[in-house]
């Protein structure tokens, strides 16, 4: 994410249900994969602790490797890899090597610092479709040791004519086994038939919906795909109408009560922390090394100008 400016994500108090729609913007990853970036947007930078949402694919490919992200560092966040089609190979500076497939979760807790690479494996299905999400860690948990966990099976919540795989946090009593550091939810919802999708929500959370494919509406309002639909707080539930096969991502959580700064792959609180982490990466300190056929990604130039 070569953005030179530091992006400030202040706590935003929302105290009511709303429906605000923010189209994703197009971005290009190292390795040239095109993504739709739905978070952060200038007018909506976080949803609970969620601070980043990239959606890529669906694409079909031949002998090339569409996912080819060489070693790069992270601090202050968790990365969530969630695939809808295809395979991605994760390798990190703790020595983990993990292939991920649809329906599984790769959760990397960067905390004080980790580096990883993400690649299309040599043996693959020729398809790729997924989302990459980041979760900001609360101040009390952002300086700890990094870790990586793979979850092959996740719990499913029934939602009328749909089902939701809860990959992080909790939805109406269905809880992911993965470690979350804030009260939150991330879920993948699929409509199994035409009709209503009943979502029971926590009024203390703010929520957003991102339609990956299909036709989904909230009341009379169609929810366009490739758009972040922010629902605000104070809702006990929503009923969506969806066509069979429609798929959407639900993100939510208690409004994040801390002002964070985002720059490149880092989530911090002060510009000096970002400069220090950047220097450590450039000098080969702190983050360790990653085994990868892809080239290490150098940090972009840092401007300490804070974009508010
Ligand atoms: Mn990464």
Proportion in β-strands: over 45%
CATH superfamily, by name, is: Jelly Rolls
CATH topology: Jelly Rolls
Q: What overall geometry do the principal axes of the alpha carbons give?
A: globular
Small molecules in complex:
manganese (II) ion
Total E-strand runs = 27
Number of domains: 1
Number of helices: 1
Report on the structure:
- The longest helix has 13 residues, at 271-283.
- This protein has one helix spanning 271-283, and strands at residues 6-9, 17-23, 25-28, 34-39, 50-60, 68-74, 77-86, 88-92, 97-100, 105-109, 114-119, 127-136, 147-151, 156-159, 162-171, 174-175, 184-191, 195-200, 206-213, 216-218, 221-222, 227-232, 237-242, 247-253, 260-263, 266-268, 306-307.
- The strands form five sheets. Strands 2, 14, 15, 16, 17, 19, 22 and 24 form an eight-stranded antiparallel β-sheet that branches. A seven-stranded antiparallel β-sheet has the order 3-4-5-12-7-10-13, with no helix packed on it. The chain has a four-stranded mixed β-sheet with strand order 26-25-1-27, with helices on one face.
- The chain has 308 residues and is mostly beta strands.
- Bound molecules: manganese (II) ion.
- Residues 72, 74, 79, 116, 265 line the site of manganese (II) ion.
- The site of manganese (II) ion has 5 residues, from strand 6.
């Amino acid at each position: 994410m070569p953005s030179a400016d530091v992006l400030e994500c202040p706590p935003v108090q929302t105290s009511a249900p709303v429906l605000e729609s923010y189209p994703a913007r197009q971005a290009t990853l190292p390795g040239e994969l095109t993504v739709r970036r739905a978070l952060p947007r200038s007018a909506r930078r976080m949803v609970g602790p969620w601070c980043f949402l990239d959606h890529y694919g669906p694409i079909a490919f031949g002998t090339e490797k569409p996912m080819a992200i060489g070693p790069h560092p992270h601090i202050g966040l968790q990365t969530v890899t969630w695939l809808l089609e295809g395979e991605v190979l994760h390798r990190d500076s703790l020595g983990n090597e993990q292939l991920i497939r649809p329906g599984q979760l790769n959760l990397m807790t960067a905390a004080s610092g980790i580096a990883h690479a993400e690649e299309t494996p040599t043996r693959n299905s020729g398809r790729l479709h997924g989302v990459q999400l980041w979760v900001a860690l609360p101040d009390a948990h952002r300086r700890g040791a990094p870790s990586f966990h793979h979850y092959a099976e996740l719990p499913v919540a029934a939602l009328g004519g749909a089902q939701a795989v809860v990959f992080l946090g909790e939805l109406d009593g269905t809880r992911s086994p993965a470690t979350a550091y804030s009260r939150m939810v991330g879920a993948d919802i699929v409509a199994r038939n035409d009709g209503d999708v009943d979502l029971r929500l926590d009024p203390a959370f703010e929520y957003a919906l991102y339609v990956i494919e299909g036709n989904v509406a909230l009341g009379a309002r169609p929810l366009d795909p490739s758009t972040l639909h922010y629902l605000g707080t104070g809702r006990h539930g929503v009923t969506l109408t969806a066509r069979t096969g429609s798929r959407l991502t639900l993100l939510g959580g208690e409004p994040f009560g801390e002002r964070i700064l985002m720059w490149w792959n880092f989530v911090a609180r002060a510009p000096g922390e970002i400069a220090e982490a950047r220097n450590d990466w450039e000098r080969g300190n702190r983050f360790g090394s990653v085994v990868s056929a892809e080239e290490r990604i150098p940090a972009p130039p840092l401007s300490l100008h804070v974009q508010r």
